[in-house]
């Protein structure tokens, strides 16, 4: 039965595990589509243009915003990040779910947009601040200075936890992933996300009448 695509927004302080969870979700369900953001930050080792992000100059980014190509955009850690609108609209038309790895500012903007009814938002918390710090260091992709900056911002990001529909504390990765799948499976079953239900019930009633 046809289903309306939903917009799954994952936010967390940097290092809590949302990119890892997003990757696991994409590997688990091939129909899910990841919203590739545009950013002015430099690529990390191993990141490819068009896969993790569209890496753009500040001027290119500003043009995208000016032309109305961004669903939302925000400044995070001194760089600009934004969600291109076109792919999200195409996914919804195709009945596919979209996953967003964006910060609280982006979450707020999409929730408050015309697409707000289609949003399911999840905030990922670390089990402790010491563990958050450890994860940022073991990821080993940022300099000490960048890590210190991200830790300093964590408190601000965490202060937005109550704006989200669900909150997951990411202690054990597999357990958190199970919880994430449970949320997604339940949200997909919501009545208003199954536009074919009225027709289906009509066929049930016709069957009654034919008895
Ligand atoms: P974010 O996208 O929120 O910045 P990442 O997904 O990059 O965070 O995770 C940061 C680091 O922590 C990575 O090295 C990742 O493998 C690790 N990590 C994620 N979840 C867990 C967990 N539950 N237990 C231990 N390490 C984790
Ligand atoms: P990173 O540089 O670690 O990839 O991401 C830094 C922060 O920017 C993360 O909190 C991430 O969720 C957020 N982010 C990534 N893409 C977007 C986006 O398109 N919009 C917004 N608002 N935040 C984003």
From TrEMBL:
Organism: Paragemmobacter amnigenus
Name of the top EC class for this enzyme: transferase
PROSITE patterns, A to Z: GUANYLATE_KINASE_1, GUANYLATE_KINASE_2
Protein family per UniProt: Belongs to the guanylate kinase family.
Family annotation (SUPFAM superfamilies): P-loop containing nucleoside triphosphate hydrolases (SSF52540)
InterPro entries associated with the record: GK/Ca_channel_bsu, Guanylate_kin-like_dom, Guanylate_kinase, Guanylate_kinase_CS, P-loop_NTPase
Gene this chain is encoded by: gmk
HAMAP family reported in the protein's UniProt record: Guanylate_kinase (MF_00328)
Keywords annotated in UniProt: ATP-binding, Cytoplasm, Kinase, Nucleotide-binding, Transferase
Pfam families: Guanylate_kin
UniProt key word Nucleotide-binding: yes
Record EC number: 2.7.4.8
Subcellular localization: Cytoplasm
Occurrences of domain Guanylate kinase-like (ranges): 5-185
The protein's name: Guanylate kinase
Sites where the protein binds ATP: 12-19
Coiled coil: none
Taxonomy, superkingdom: Bacteria
Catalytic activity: GMP + ATP = GDP + ADP
A GO term, aspect molecular function: GMP kinase activity
Role of this protein: Essential for recycling GMP and indirectly, cGMP.
